Amino acid sequence: MYGSYAGRARWGAAAAAAALLLAGCSSSDDDGDKHPPMAQQPKGTDPFWVNPDGKAAQQVASYLDGDDDKNAELIKKIAEQPVGEWIGPDNPEAEAKGFTEAAQKADRDALLVLYNIPHRDCGQFSKGGAADGNAYREWVEKVAKGIGDRRATVVLEPDAVLHVVDGCTPEEFHEERFDLLKGAVARLRQLPATTVYLDAGNAGWSHPDALFEPLQRAGIAQADGFAVNVSNFQTTAASREFGKRLSAKVGNKHFVIDTSRNGSGPYTGGDPKENWCNPPGRSLGERPTTKTGDPLVDAYLWVKRPGESDGDCKGGPKAGDWYPKYALELARNTK
User: Fold this and answer.
1) For a FRET experiment, which of 4, 122, 171, 279 has its CA 20 to 30 Å from that of 320?
2) Model's pTM, two decimal places?
3) Is 298 a catalytic residue?
4) Which tens digits make up the pLDDT trace of 185-238?
5) Selected catalytic residue, list 53, 121, 224, 298
6) Is 310 a catalytic residue?
7) Annotation says 224 is catalytic
């Protein structure tokens, strides 16, 4: 299923957020208590950092400025939870440093997503990536320098293995891709406080038998584990079952599940080829936590930022742009 992860973070927004963090800024209450800063979640159950300057927090502030308390409360369902920070191509060291420093200051862990592999997304909504293998290695090195010895959890390259297996990435790039992924895992694992999860697709796409050998070639043995359901809508139960079956084939590795938008499960209406793109009627899933009740599932994470568009489909803006209407729908549909 091509494009199943479309809707990545908008690089300019990430860079701007990093610049604010590096300057020591955060959302403030210039209007008294009208814009109180977003609090961190309890560290014991959710050790990841809540970005007080995220797009959802900005939408909350906009509603409060308009005295729309009802919608502000709805969007707080997103703004008060930690979400992945997608590192952009232009200033990776500064962004990684900014996010991890801000997380460290709050005594939390940064959740970072690396999504810059060459020939990314098979030319779909989120196409792009580093110009070549050497450019990618340099980019990863800068990310690693930016993280340093601060605590970070990294989800590595959504789509990358999946799109080798499904054939939409041309075969001539396969060997290099495996080498780049394996190198990225190795470099990030050299960091003293960084945990690395290699992306491994989703329960709606593939059988684990098709993935375990490619994951091995991509360095899963050296990674801390793998991630499933990134930017997708498969239920937590289906994702857990899929992950366990895959784990059994890759040395019983632990895994994390993206629960950001899976509260209503996958969309089954419309064109099946685009049922992943801004599907209607979806809702937020389980809140981020490390208390999953399953020893193999390290965490439920919001890797995809709820409220960002999957692409210019169903009336949405381009992939990665903030989509206020969709954010509100996700929140409203969540019980």
Assistant:
1) 171
2) 0.91
3) no
4) 999 999 999 999 999 999 997 678 899 999 999 999 999 999 999 999 999 999
5) 121
6) yes
7) no
